[in-house]
Design a protein that fits this description.
386 residues, alpha+beta, nine-stranded antiparallel β-sheet, globular
């Protein structure tokens, strides 16, 4: 459920990173590195050393117990590695096959499910929210397109201070639609619909309810039927409970500012974020999903073209950042990132060039260490892609 990670922390991080040409410092610690299955030739040893050094540095800087990275660049090379620890209690290493919570990468699935309904003529991008969901301020003006594109102006429920304290203390806390709407009632809309682009998890919670209203299924079942099963994503799921499928990496939380002692934060209630951030997946499945997402595999060409029309987020200085219909554009990369208490993830494709997937197992709800790692790796391989 990486909400403002795209509007405040991520924008600041991107401005600071500005896709540097490489990482030169030596890492104080060298997390254990393990290779993964590779179906084509690896990058040269010199390039692999640069990539591994960048990852180790970022692990140290961000106190990440474990990191898993996959880079697939057809005709150029591959790099699939697991670093560090997946379970601090047992000492078990992080593994390429581990399941992790993908947080806001879930939004790419939810958006696709909505857009499939548009392709079927069951939903229109210009439909108003209150046709499907009542009780939201400006619901008679907010469109489905605006919810998908982060221009609806609905208050971001994960920004609510009371919610934040409760979720940080117990990510598996009980949560219902009534709790969601109670938070919205405590706050005014963020802005008038269509006047700005500001990231909000509330948009995708509401889109989940739209899918459920139209299909008569839960958002979990709709995504399973419409996306997971048709694409054969055997290690991807929309869980119904806080439990994780085996094998999995434990998730950790070092406080809102990242400086407190790490505590186990593996269990998380998927009902809190619904289609904004509840899903679980693996490195390999995210690679397959990234390619399908960017290529529009499950959508008509015309609707995929609309999906890729973006609205810029404000980012003074640094990398250009914009949002389409459930897809993020960073420089020339397309995809999404995610952060939820316990896990951080990034999934981006440079069309025709390469796909990057990164995850780490220490995060707050608003931090993006996996995104930082992605940018450092992209800077090494594609320094002009910003």
């Amino acid at each position: 459920m990486p909400s403002r990670r795209l509007t405040r922390p991520v924008l600041l991080a991107l401005a600071a990173l500005a896709l540097p040409a490489g990482v030169a410092s030596a890492a104080p610690a060298r997390p254990a590195e393990r290779g993964g299955t590779q179906q084509q030739a690896a990058f040269s040893p010199a390039v692999q050393r640069k990539l591994s050094l960048a990852i180790r540095n970022d692990m140290t800087d961000n106190r990440l117990p474990g990191v898993v990275v996959g880079i697939w660049a057809p005709g150029r090379g591959t790099y699939v590695r697991a670093f560090g620890i997946g379970n601090r209690t047992t000492g078990a290493p992080a593994r390429v096959s581990d399941h992790i919570r993908i947080a806001s990468i879930t939004k790419t699935f939810t958006a696709t499910a909505v857009l499939q309904l548009v392709d079927q003529g069951r939903v229109s991008l210009d439909d108003h929210l209150d046709r499907y969901v009542s009780g939201v301020p400006n619901g008679d003006r907010i469109t489905v397109r605006q919810l998908l594109g982060m221009t609806a102006g609905v208050y971001d429920f994960t920004s609510d201070e009371r919610f934040g304290k409760q979720f940080n203390a117990n990510p598996a806390m009980p949560f219902s639609n009534a709790d969601f709407f109670a938070i919205l009632r405590r706050h005014k809309p963020a802005f008038a619909p269509g006047t700005q682009a500001v990231y909000s998890d509330s948009n995708y919670y509401l889109l989940s309810l739209i899918v459920e209203k139209v299909t008569g299924k839960t958002i979990a079942q709709a995504i399973t039927d419409q996306i997971i099963e048709p694409l054969g994503l055997r290690h991807t799921s929309f869980p119904a409970t806080p439990a994780m499928p085996q094998p999995f990496a434990q998730g950790y939380f070092g406080g809102a500012d990242g400086t407190a002692p790490l505590v186990d934060a593996t269990r998380s209630n998927p009902a809190v974020s619904l289609g904004a951030g509840a899903m679980v997946s693996t490195l390999g499945d995210l690679r397959r999903w990234s390619d399908a997402l960017v290529n529009g595999t499950l959508l008509s060409p015309g609707l995929q073209a609309q999906r890729l029309r973006t609205t810029p987020f404000r980012n003074p200085g640094g990398v250009s950042i914009a949002y389409g219909l459930g897809i993020l554009k960073l420089g020339r990369f397309w995809g999404h990132n995610g952060a939820i208490v316990g896990y951080s993830s990034a999934m981006f494709t440079l069309p025709g060039k390469a796909t990057f997937v990164v995850w780490g197992n220490d995060s707050s709800n608003f931090s993006t260490p996996a995104t930082t790692i992605f940018f450092h790796l992209a800077a090494i391989l594609y320094p002009d892609a910003e």
